Amino acid sequence: GECGAQYGGTTDLSKVEGECGIVTTMINKFNADNPDVHVSSNVVAWPGYPQLSAQMAARDPPDLVTMHTGMIPDYASEGLLEPVEPYLAEAGIAPSALTEASRSAVTIAGRLYGLPFDSHGGLFHVNMKLFAKAGLMRDGKPVLPTSPEEMMAQARQFTARTGKPYLIQSLVGDNAYAARNLYTYLLAQDAVLFPSPRRIRLQTPQAERIVDFFRAITASGVSTRNQDTPAAIASFMSGEGGIYPTGTW
Question: Where are the domains of the chain?
Fold first, then answer.
């Protein structure tokens, strides 16, 4: 996002919050410390890859770009990204200083193609009050399922006792939600998604199991339906459901 109005002149990282504020302040501080070099930022509509590809096609790419790790192989395999090991070495940063998860995410064919600065994952956001009403609290912690069968049983118990949906889902206009669920639970089953760099494999028993389960839980009356992301967020914030699965962004 763009937050120049709030952080346009800030150079103290200890006094800012949020990704936009932190990145903006880092740029401000770099410019203040290096008057002979000026870094300017270009805020684009999320996720920004159509514009990035257009800039590259026009031979006018940015010097630096923020990129999801899932996109790095596409650009690196075409020679559109430059390995960063020399720059890390110059700055005195050893690859071993990075977490294993972040380092592996930017490593392609043994080379590092980015400096990780954020690692986020999917979370179950839980309404503890409703979970208590549903009898799904133990020692002050929510009882969460460890299998599809447990989730269905707990979801039915939750809805029967609270009259509210167990699962809040953003199913309208949010293809990323379904993709994240499929990807997450395929990885949980150690499925091989990409048998080769240019081929994805989704016609598998593991994938069918995931799709069948989410179809069943949506059809069984224990989940919201016909909500987009703003509506799903509003539902959870208003206490209208038990769990809202979404990321840490």
Answer: 4-112, 122-247
Task: Find out whether 220 and 156 touch, Cβ atoms under 8 Å.
Answer: yes
User: Residue 138 class from Cβ within 10 Å (0-12 exposed, 13-18 middle, 19+ buried)?
Assistant: exposed
Written in H, E and C, the secondary structure of 10-42 is: CCCHHHCCHHHHHHHHHHHHHHHHCCCCCCCCC
Residues paired with residue 244 on neighbouring β-strands, in sequence order: 125
Count of other CB atoms within 10 angstroms of residue 178: 15
Please give the C-alpha separations between residue 2 and each of 20, 23, 26, in angstroms, as whole numbers.
Answer: 7, 10, 14
87-142 tens-digit pLDDT = 999 999 999 999 998 999 899 989 999 999 877 778 999 999 999 999 999 999 99
The pTM for the full model equals: 0.72
Distance CA 65, CA 215 (A): 38
82 CA to centre of own chain: 24
With H, G, I as helix, E, B as strand and everything else as coil, classify residue 196. Answer: strand
4-112 falls under which CATH superfamily?
A: Periplasmic binding protein-like II (3.40.190.10)
122-247 architecture in CATH? 3-Layer(aba) Sandwich (3.40)
Q: What is the DSSP letter of 91?
A: T
Burial readout 183-221 (b: 16 or more C-beta within 10 A, e: otherwise): bebbeeeebeeeeeeeeeeeeeebbeebeebbeebbeee
Identity at 65, one-letter amino acid code: V
State the burial class of residue 102 (Cβ atoms within 10 Å of its Cβ: 0-12, 13-18, 19+): middle
